[in-house]
Amino acid sequence: MNSTPAITVRPLAGLPMFAPGMSIVQAICRRLAEEGDGLRDGDICVIAQKIVSKVEGRAVNLGAITPGDAAHDLAARTEREPAMAQAILDESAEILRAMPAAIIARHRTGHVLANAGIDASNIAGGDEGTVLLWPLDPDASARTIRSGLQSASGARIGVVIADSMGRAWRIGTVGAAIGCAGLTVLEDRRGKAQDLYGRTLQATVIAVADSIAAMGALAMGEGAEGTPVALVRGAERWVGDEDGAGAVSGLRPVEQDMFR
């Protein structure tokens, strides 16, 4: 018999359209109260990167960007507007691949993804050149939100900031943790557990934060659903009292990058 508790995830509907300066903490607490619910010990709030970037004022208009020579070269190679190429360069520590399908960049936070995470979907003014950048420090944003939610609710919780990313060798995107607080990012089971036949695990490291982010992103949706927060319950064994090392602790070191 499997005694592992069930994990549930539900999108939090009815949240407002977020704008610079608004409080994600207040919006979540207010909506849960309206539903007759509240945060409980062990809950995990998965929050879409878009609303974190919006409240932190990370929207920029490409018309205000002056592209340099490197941006013009990148734009020519990838069939993009030079201003967009400049925005990607500004947000990147390194360009790994550049082609019309995507510019694969190592974001300045260390995450590797397409177009340095810059996106125009679900953004007011997206058709007029407005794009949204990632938060300056997603892990710091997650810590701030977690602190606010714990103070407001008295509950011990985890927070994951999620964005959709492509994956090597796979088609399609999946939610991934770009910011994390109060949650185990990686569960290293090497030498600590056995398989069904008693063999000690040798290579199993579970990407807990990414798995939670993927659950939340799937529940929230990618289009016009308007549900940028999901509540995960039943995963309290991975929720800790401390903020933890953050999502960056789950990044493979550059010297171990097999795709460079």
Automatic annotation (TrEMBL):
Residues 15-234 form the Coenzyme F420:L-glutamate ligase-like domain. Keywords: GTP-binding, Ligase, Magnesium, Manganese, Metal-binding, Nucleotide-binding, Potassium. Gene3D superfamilies: CofE-like, CofE-like domain. It comes from the Bacteria. InterPro entries: F420-0_g-glutamyl_ligase (IPR008225), F420-0_gamma-glut_ligase-dom (IPR002847). Pfam families: F420_ligase. The keyword GTP-binding applies. The keyword rRNA-binding does not apply. GO terms for molecular function: coenzyme F420-0:L-glutamate ligase activity; GTP binding; metal ion binding. NCBIfam families: F420_cofE (TIGR01916). This is Gamma-glutamyl ligase. It comes from Novosphingobium malaysiense. The lineage of its organism: Bacteria, Pseudomonadati, Pseudomonadota, Alphaproteobacteria, Sphingomonadales.
